[in-house]
Design a protein that fits this description.
21% helix, single chain, two-stranded antiparallel sheet, Stationary-phase Survival Protein Sure Homolog, Chain: A
């Protein structure tokens, strides 16, 4: 297959190299990724109003690799599909991200956004994350992605969703299996912003991100958060509909409000 790989951790990240290592022998790989760290970029796109330099990069086992100077993860997927790669892409993979992308975190995730850009283009797409912010054992996640790809490609509905795939920080033998699940609320990261009062009365806000102080709010049985905590690979089908359909009838009375009334 022709596979386009993007990420948000940057073209030199260990996660993207681990993915390349397991896929390069059986596939034609193309990489388009940010030139620097772009985590938590969400679905920020700049390709319609900003010039970017695409820097050709040599990566062993990759047909073509481009680092997008100043580009966001979503920019990278778009450029790869629309402009840089001439071959027809069969699959988009974003990752492997350093750290989990679960539930509400997906709103902030550049990894998820890069995969969603592939989904928007009508191509089967996977956002993949390794659920540790400190460990570097990306190999297990890479192997699971490789094993899972044929199942996704054989799914007749694979263009109807973007698959969010999170792998727990466990050995392959310790992982219990796959769990198809939805979102389960929020993970609250506490005390990650510090402040310093400046002499002129302004306040300097700066990050202190250790991810050590975290509260899990989910108690839903089928949530992605609990699946990871219980030792499963979490599989969540994502799509772009933000509408809360359960609330449509609940707020119907808004239609009775008169304009200017």
């Amino acid at each position: 297959m022709n596979i386009l790989i993007a990420n948000d951790d940057g073209i030199n990240a260990e996660g993207i190299r681990a993915l390349i290592d397991v896929l390069k022998d059986d596939n034609n790989l193309y990489v388009v990724a940010p030139d620097t760290q772009k985590s938590a970029s969400s679905h920020w796109i700049t390709y319609f109003n900003t010039e970017h330099k695409a820097i050709r990069t040599d990566i062993d086992g990759v047909k073509e690799a481009w680092a997008i100077e100043g580009g966001t993860p979503a920019d990278c997927t778009y450029y790869g599909l629309s402009t840089l790669i001439k071959e027809k892409i069969d699959l988009v993979i974003s990752g492997i991200n350093q750290g989990e992308n679960l539930s509400a975190d997906c709103m902030y995730s550049g990894t998820v956004a890069a995969a969603l850009e592939g989904y928007i283009a009508g191509i089967p797409s996977i956002a993949t994350s390794y659920c540790s912010y400190t460990e570097k054992n990306f190999g297990v996640t890479a192997e699971i992605v490789k094993e899972f790809i044929p199942h996704l490609m054989n799914d007749k509905n694979n263009k109807n969703y973007c698959l969010n795939l999170n792998v727990p920080n466990l050995s392959k033998e310790e992982i219990k299996g796959y769990k198809v699940c939805g979102f389960g609320g929020n993970q609250i990261y506490e005390n990650i912003v510090n402040k310093k009062e400046l002499d002129n009365g302004d306040i300097l806000l700066y990050p202190d991100i250790s991810f050590g102080n975290k509260a899990i709010l989910s108690k839903q049985i089928d949530s992605d958060i609990l699946a990871i905590r219980e030792g499963y690979v979490a599989l969540t089908p994502l799509f772009l509909d933000f509408v809360n359909y359960e609330m449509i009838n609940e707020i119907k009375d808004y239609e009775k409000i008169e304009i200017g009334g």
